[in-house]
Amino acid sequence: MRSVLAQEQSTDPFGYVTVEIYDQTYYLSGHDTQHIRNLAELVDARMRAVAAQGRTVDSLRVAVLAALNLADELSQATEGGDARLTHARAASLRGMLDEVLEDERKTG
Questions:
Q1: Which of 21, 25, 81 is nearest to 51 (CA)?
Q2: pLDDT digits (tens, 9 = 90+) for 46-97
Q3: Domain boundaries of the chain, sorted by first residue
Q4: H/E segment holding residue 21
């Protein structure tokens, strides 16, 4: 098991960042590459926690369960937070999850 959960591999001048989530490499883009790295670490940690507690080794199922867990946290946070900011963050996370799931479908 790696000691660093989601580790930044490289950043290019066009805003792309290479991250590793659950032992898979992803090339993501965005305005704030550090934020992307932080999100990758969060997703990686959550997927590893789900995998450690569950019986499944299927990475797609682990990803979906981790996404549900994060969505639940986000839902609970919206009850007392700024709804516009929360919706923007949710949309960003949804987009990243869609990218991850699409890559998973293509490779697995």
A1: 21
A2: 999 999 987 777 889 899 889 988 888 887 777 766 667 767 777 777 777 7
A3: 8-107
A4: strand 16-21
User: pLDDT of 82-94, one tens digit each?
Assistant: 667 767 777 777 7
Q: Where are the alpha helices (DSSP H) in 8-82?
A: 33-53, 59-78
For residues 105 and 22, what is the distance between their CA atoms, to the nearest angstrom? Answer: 15
Residue indicated by tokens 């919706």: 87
HSE-CB for 104 with a 13 A CA cutoff: 17
What amino acid is encoded at 44 in this protein?
D
Q: Is 82 helix (H, G, I), strand (E, B) or coil?
A: coil
Q: Identify whether the C-beta of residue 104 lies closer than 8 Å to the C-beta of residue 59.
A: yes
Q: Angle 40-42-43 (CA atoms, 0-180°, nearest 5)?
A: 65
